[in-house]
Structure prediction request, 228 residues.
Amino acid sequence: MTAKIITVFNQKGGCGKTMSTMQLSGFYGSRGLKVFVIDMDLQGTSSLWSLQAESEAPFPATVLSMAALSDGFVNKLAPIVEKHDVVLIDCPPAIESRVPWASLLISDLGLIPVVPVMDNIWASKKAEELILEAKAKHRPDLKGAYVLNMVRRGNIFDTCLEQLSNKKLIPILNTHMGMRNVFPESQLFGTFAEGFGTSAGAKEIEKLGLEVAALVGLFVPKKTKGAK
Ligand SMILES: Nc1ncnc2c1ncn2[C@@H]1O[C@H](COP(=O)(O)OP(=O)(O)OP(=O)(O)O)[C@@H](O)[C@H]1O
Ligand SMILES: [Mg+2]
Prediction:
């Protein structure tokens, strides 16, 4: 087993890095994949999230904080990568920290969550540049993608989306995450969207999970009968 590695990062705080990390890892884990989340943010949000789960229904991925190690965390990854199908790295909202760069250099995909409003689009430029630099200098096979988060209807969102599509050098995933109550609710109970059964949010995460998996060549088993 050699895990696919996904770095989830952006300069912008609150754009959905932890949300994307935890929803995707919950989805992959629920499909029987061995998933490891590395929490690189000293806020520890993904670690706290997984700790909310009841012991009889644990979060379906291992979550470990390595934030104190800063970029040295990459030296600890070999045994984890060997024993898992997918590793997601939840980065802090600081592009100038050494963490996103070190993380991209060992990754298959750099995923940039972005809310379709102008401040997020401006801030994401640095993240895009980091992927392009890592790809050009060290990791030619590295992929990059934007995932739109907290998408709502309205002209302002449409205009921002248009700007993002026109100016960006890396693709925007087809699947968006809407503004949905089920996402923050899953935090509260240490689960992910599908933990509450079928919903529009759960369907989005399934679609997103499959789209990201296809991008990195990760095989996701079909949902087993009787599973939620
Ligand atoms: N699609 C969504 N629908 C509803 N709420 C969301 C959605 N995405 C994120 N949120 C909420 O927005 C807030 C910020 O999300 P999140 O913590 O994932 O961002 P972040 O980029 O990890 O932030 P930070 O930079 O602080 O690490 C959280 O309270 C989260 O619950
Ligand atoms: Mg976060």
